[in-house]
Structure prediction request, 249 residues.
Amino acid sequence: MSATTNPDPAPGSLAFVPLEANPELMTSLLRKLGVSGALAVHDVYSITEPELLAFVPRPALAVLLVFPVSATYESARLAEDAGAQPYDARGPDEPVLWFRQTIRNACGLMGLLHAVANGPAKAFIQPDTPLHRLIQAATPLGPTERSALLEKTPELATAHQEAASRGATAAPDAQDDVDLHYVCFVKTEADGTLWELDGRRKGPIARGTLAPDEDVLSDKALLWGPLRFLERGGGDMRFSCVALAGALD
Prediction:
């Protein structure tokens, strides 16, 4: 893949140990960085069976999907990104806060940042915490400067390393090539837009407009978001999904 079409961080870039899609670890990481205990990450056991979706508190504020980066997916990504201009929005009027990923294997952290820095979840970030300071510093910056800010924020690296090392399964090495990736879906309050947020893309992608009573686990949001990824799975079952919503404790 040429340098113009490969969105992955270059060899030798700063690398993190991949983050397991473990709700307990993710919740701990978010709270360590400054998210209120009123929110938690929850397993989504199925996105097609209503009785299993009912286990997730509603409204869900964000969905993180882990998916295999297959040849079919990459073909679809390249085709869609070919007509997109590089994203360069910044400032308080930016519809969503988006981070380009330049840290290898940090897509789990990127997904969590996108989940809490946008939509109603942002109101649950406590003042004078690492996340609060990061968002304040990142908002006026363009994508390149934002990526550099993430790389130079030691509190992120420390909290991420602590969470990644506590996973239930043996973690890959930070420099390993991992073919699973996280994408985040959030709904903005102002206009109901469902956004796909992925640091490997050219920028945030508006997937459609949800009604006021539709959250990111509504039928429409799932159709425009996670189900599109499953349709391109080609029989690969390495998908998992978690949601950010109200805490149960």
Remarks:
- The longest strand covers residues 180-187.
